[in-house]
Amino acid sequence: MPLIQVQQTPGKTTEQKSELVRELTEAYVRATGSKPESVWVTVQEIATDSWSIAGETLAERAAKR
Description:
By secondary structure, the chain is α+β, with helices and mostly antiparallel strands. Helices cover 40% and strands 25% of the residues.
């Protein structure tokens, strides 16, 4: 049973996340011939103060803009 995991910062609407899950499932089914019922997708939202690039959190980077 395949599991697709998406990690992103918060801010997308429920509708956007639903569309993402549908599109990822459809792409996997097209590429592998699997049944949609076998594809699991999780969306994990990580706060911008818990995600960093080059030693700086995304929250810190956003504050500089």
